[in-house]
Amino acid sequence: MTAADHLVYLHGFRSSSRSVKAIKVLDWMTSVSAQSRLWQPDLAVSPAAAVQQVSRQILQWRAEAPSCTIDFMGSSLGGFYATVLAQRFGGRAVLLNPAVAPWLDLKNETGRRKVYFSEQEIEFLPGYLDELQAMHVPALTQPERYFLLACMGDEVLDANTMIERYRQSPSLIVPGGDHAISDFDIYLPVVMQFVGWGRA
């Protein structure tokens, strides 16, 4: 597969660009001399602001190079964002244990919360649930552009819901595993190949 001009990695809820998976993706891109193609933003807490943040960068790239292409990789809530953005801007998307209906998954997560891999805290407001629901994409166009990695042992999100959502997309269903995909090293070559950054 041909690699896109840019790969955007989107972290999950209460996570950051310093998450374990984000660092592994960065290490991989560095190993294939493509670190400059990778963008791993620390996303705004507001879902609407997070999507706007990424959209603004994409529009800047396309203002500089109108034909540039963008692929996405997202974990958990980042997988939901990756779907929204791939629908909006085209490109492929790798979805790592993605949230399917995060306005339901996060309804008990409002208030102040600690950020993983950081000393920071965030405040997740009730109105953010409405922002998530408002950006939901009911049906995927070109489902072959999406690759699902779902762990049946996910203790946070329902893997069967992911499988149903992306049932027409290529997928790798892990019969165990966990939400963090602790054995991500095993699957990293497969997901990187899907977005055109496999190793020779």
Describe the structure.
Helices cover 36% and strands 18% of the residues. The chain has a 6-stranded parallel sheet, with helices on both faces. A two-stranded antiparallel sheet has the order 5-6. The protein is an alpha/beta fold. The longest helix is centred in the first third of the chain and has 18 residues, at 47-64. The chain is built from 7 helices and 8 strands.
Describe the structure in brief.
This protein has 200 residues and is an alpha/beta fold.
How are the SSEs ordered, and which strands pair?
Layout lengths: L5 E5 L9 H12 L6 E2 L7 H18 L5 E6 L1 H13 L3 E4 L5 H4 L5 E4 L6 E4 L2 H8 L11 E6 L7 H7 L5 E4 L9 H11 L6
Parallel strand pairs: 1-2, 1-3, 3-4, 4-7, 7-8
Antiparallel strand pairs: 5-6
Question: What class, by secondary structure content?
Answer: alpha/beta
Arithmetic mean of pLDDT: 96
* CATH structural architecture: 3-Layer(aba) Sandwich
Task: Based on Cα principal axes, name the global outline.
Answer: globular
* Major beta sheet, strand line-up: 2-1-3-4-7-8
Oligomeric description of these chains: single chain
State the helical fraction.
25-40%
- The tally of structural domains comes to 1
Beta-strand segment tally: 8
The CATH class: Alpha Beta
Strand % is 15-25%
Helix tally equals 7
Biggest sheet features:
6 strands, parallel
Amino-to-carboxy terminus distance: 12 Å
Point out poorly predicted stretches. none
Order of helices and strands: EHEHEHEHEEHEHEH
